[in-house]
User: Fold these one by one.
Assistant:
Number 1:
Amino acid sequence: MTLLDEPTGALDAASIRCLWRTLADVSREPGRAFVIASGERIANVPLAATIELPLQAEAGFAQVHSGDERA
């Protein structure tokens, strides 16, 4: 398992595309998993699931979405 905290924070657009492409390729290997923490919604990347946490000012619980349910 690889944990990534805001992996795109200091990257330009081309580097972000390269990162997502590399993670998608590596994630196909058996036994590989990535947990990505990001304040931005990650679009155009096939994710198995997402967990959306509410802002501190919002009441409620985290929402979990499977990869097929993301919009």
Note: The chain has one domain: 2-69.
Number 2:
Amino acid sequence: MTPDQIRYSNEYWKQRFFLTFLEKKVYDFLEALCQQNSVRVESRVKDEKSFLDKIDRPGKSYKDPINDITDLVGFRVITYYKRDVDIVEEIIRKNFCVDDTHTQDTFERLQPNEFGYLSKHFIVQLSPETLKQLSPERYRIPDFNHLMRECKEQKFEIQVRTLLQHAWATLSHKLTYKAENEAPRELRRKIAMLSALLETADDASMSLQKLRQEIQEKYRNEITAGNLNGIFIDAESVSAYLELSDDAKAWWTIAHEIGWQSLIPIQVNLNAIDGIGPEDVEAERKEKEKERQKRQVSNLIALLGKGKVEKLSELDEILTNDKPLRIKYLRDLFMQLQANNEHVRASIHDIIRAIVINVKCQVIRPSDLKALDYDESLINIFSKLCNLCEKDNDV
């Protein structure tokens, strides 16, 4: 090491604890801000070797490297869609002080006929409002106020890119060519082709997201108007139907009156982790609840498939026809579950599945329920009650 490198190395290690502290605080804050619009958030503190290499890079000159280099602490927010990149930018500008002089959008460097690395790089500092939110109660660290004063002055980088832009950046980095003219001519063309394909896929994913939103809106309008005949069973249509249909929602009221209780709320135990506050726990709980509802919709759709129910109008008929008979069946099912010491907690999805099994008992077989992971005792109860119900229908 040269004398300058030794001096810079010493300065780096003096600041290392502070830089790691800043990374932890901002990572938690940024992840909470972006959780609705990102695949994931990544972070890192530049290691000593990278720090020293950057100082020695040709064309670079730093009077005070430890303060002049703006990406000693770096974050990357990876989104699904290009639209989310713009949303995350708004979040960053609202919650951080952005240095627009050094912030860059790599897209602006490309000519219309060029393809390559795409990402937005924001050079930022903590804003006074953000500093207030990072309360000392959340971090058990001595001399917290001194560290916060240093955090206020430290600049750092936040990169924002889509998942496919990140794939391109990762692939191009693996090729180890820092500049395009370093690559062999034949390889340069292949690299450009791959970049163009990924950019096209990024645009296509945006189109898919837009189409999905249009379909969701169409379903909601049709269900609200009562036009169910042309709507096929899928995750979007079933979710909208359960949310908007009074007939579907009425069954949960009936089940509750019979004695069924709601599912136990999902519990999240993150309080033992430093830096985790009540809002983080609640966000995690909501995310897990969303995942549970997706599984329940998926299970309902799988059962409807076994029962050869293809359209919402058919599901609606199942829930509206012979209602007194279905209520009697649910009451018998509840009593049988209690007699067998089975749990009597359920969701609206569970209640509707039970009704579908009852109505479609001539189509759905015990083997179908077994394939859908129903346990043997529950299959036996359904088989018994559906047979009883068939006798009632014959009378």
Note: Residues 185-225 form the longest helix (41 residues).
Number 3:
Amino acid sequence: MTGSHWNLVAAVAVALCVATPGRAESVSPETARDLVRNGDILALHDVLSRIRPAIEGEIIAVALETDGRRFLYRIKALGRDGRYRDYRADAKDGAAVHDP
């Protein structure tokens, strides 16, 4: 793994432990591991390989959340223009989520 991949892993670990404001609730790292192990959601690297082409800029944080209906990976990226962008992917199939 390169240095940037380790930075992403560290950012994910921190993001998974921090509560997110709003309707979505953070998922603990232990719960995330169980969900992946049981086949309920895809591992982060699988989701990123599917959604990465749609993400503009460098990924700086990732969190696994649930809205009560499904599990979502929330991805924050810093664009080349210096602007932050938020993306969401369904953790079950890796598809981009465009809900309002």
Note: Residues 3-90 form one domain.
